[in-house]
Amino acid sequence: MAEKEAAPKKEKKVREKKMAYQTVKGMHDILPEEQPLWDKVRLATKHVGEFYNFQRIDTPVLEGADIFERGLGTKTDIVEKEMFVIKTRGGDKLVMRPEFTSAVMRAYYQHGLSQFGQPMKLYYEGPVFRYEQPQAGRYRQFNQVGFEILGAESDPVYDAQAIMSAFRIIEELKIKNVTVHINSIGCHKCRATYIKKLEAHYKKNALKICKDCKNRISTNPLRVLDCKEEKCQLVKAEAPIILDYLDSECKAHFTKVLEYLDEVKIPYYIDSYLVRGLDYYNRTVFEFFGEGFSVALGGGGRYDYLSETLKLGKLSAVGSALGTERIIEVMKASGKIIVPRGAARVFLVHIGDEAKKRGLALIEEFRKSGVRINESFGKDSLKSQMRVADKEQAQLSLILGQREVFEGSIIVRDMETGAQESVPLERIVEEVKKRLK
Fold first, then answer.
1. GO biological process: any one (predicted)?
2. What is the pLDDT along the chain (437 residues), one digit of tens a residue?
3. 375 annotated as a binding-site residue
4. Is 276 annotated as a binding-site member?
5. Which of 80, 105, 204, 387 is 20 to 30 Å from 319 at the Cα level?
6. Is 100 among the annotated ligand-binding positions?
């Protein structure tokens, strides 16, 4: 009996054994089977961006820390808790970019993009880094696609275009029932009056809110509205609404944005407590939500004060961004978008060294003609190679042996019927194209 009971313990030990090397916490590999989904998001971003006249921009992963400390606000969670900071040997303080907008603004001024036609419309895609607790669709290294419109007047039509561009990506990816949650947080002038009312409300309820919100109400009051703690949600539900404190210009701006969204039939919900988590926003702020998903797929807003905060000048701007991982999670959950990698419908089988050598050159002929062809050069037997061709569901297999090389021919086998015939090597590409139609 004792020997029989010992077996399960040994099995448990095997199950708990971990690999010596694993991805760092919050980082993740994008495996080959997932790549088609990523390609689909990138392609949709390119299609939408180019159609709406956005130009691609890529900024470095490393930026000077000051751009984000000034631009995002020293009391934001990103700056206080989440930036990956690097001290160089020369004493420079760098960060792995936690977001794109400030980096794009830096590039706009550094390279004199204001000399080109305005507004300057730019789009991007790539990784960003935040040291936070990993959560659904969000990692410490995660990816974004986004749009920035810089250098125009503070015209609400551009707010609508920033929203519309991101929404069209979601639409092109066949994600349904997406709604834009939208609000206006006004300008510095009208927001000051609202913040006083908000501070008074939260100080009156100081015993009912979390520790973080007690600090935020003194340092960054609007951030209390972004808190997800349940007890803080109850206090927020009775808080004053910022829309009631907008001045006439900010009200008119917000009304126009909504009218433009109505015109292009983008569904929206006015979320009176939506503020976003960064200091540089003013007036329009928004987020995208899919039905059945509690986390935002992305968001954005207007940031007319960012360039002044960075001491670069005065510049009106607005932008939007989507979290690629979150978009892909929704695509997977829908169960409808399964995007297999475009498999090769032709498989080359070789028999012998001379056939392998000639087959290598033959593959290049197919490449030049735009026909995908697969092979298994590491296997030598006909049987093992045919098994691979069958497993990959090839439509045709091309069998090249020593005799065929000598005669200048190749055997074409229909994998479904088993029928095969010999075809001159010089005509094989043309013959395969004909049969694949």
1. histidyl-tRNA aminoacylation
2. 344 444 444 444 445 557 788 888 888 888 888 898 999 999 999 999 999 999 999 999 999 888 888 767 666 667 777 777 888 888 888 988 988 999 999 999 999 998 888 899 999 999 998 887 777 667 888 999 999 999 988 899 999 999 999 999 999 999 888 999 999 999 888 888 888 888 888 888 878 788 888 888 877 788 888 777 888 888 888 888 899 999 999 999 999 999 999 999 999 999 988 887 677 889 999 999 987 787 889 999 999 988 888 888 889 999 999 999 999 988 888 775 454 555 678 999 999 999 999 999 999 999 998 888 988 888 888 999 998 888 888 899 999 999 999 999 999 999 889 999 999 999 999 999 988 86
3. no
4. yes
5. 80
6. yes
Sign of the C-alpha dihedral computed for residues 283, 288, 294 and 295 taken in this order: negative
Helix H or strand E encompassing 409: strand 409-414
- Residue 125 among known ligand-binding residues: no
Burial of 226 (0-12, 13-18, 19+ CB in 10 A): middle
Residue 186 tokens read as 């006004």
Judging by DSSP bridges, how do beta strands 373-375 and 346-350 pair with one another? Answer: parallel
What CATH number has the domain spanning 346-436? Answer: 3.40.50.800
User: Is 191 marked within a binding site?
Assistant: no
101 labeled binding residue: yes
Cα(430)–Cα(433) distance, integer angstroms: 5
The CATH topology of domain 32-187+247-334 is BirA Bifunctional Protein; domain 2 (3.30.930)
Please give the Cα distance from 179 to 165 (Å, whole number): 14
| DSSP assigned state of 175 | -
Can you give the pTM of this predicted structure?
0.81
Domain assignments of the chain as residue spans, ordered by start? 32-187+247-334, 346-436
* 87: enclosing H helix or E strand: strand 84-87
User: What is the rounded distance in angstroms from the CA atom of residue 285 to the CA atom of residue 297?
Assistant: 14
- Peptide bond just before 119 cis, omega within 30 deg: yes
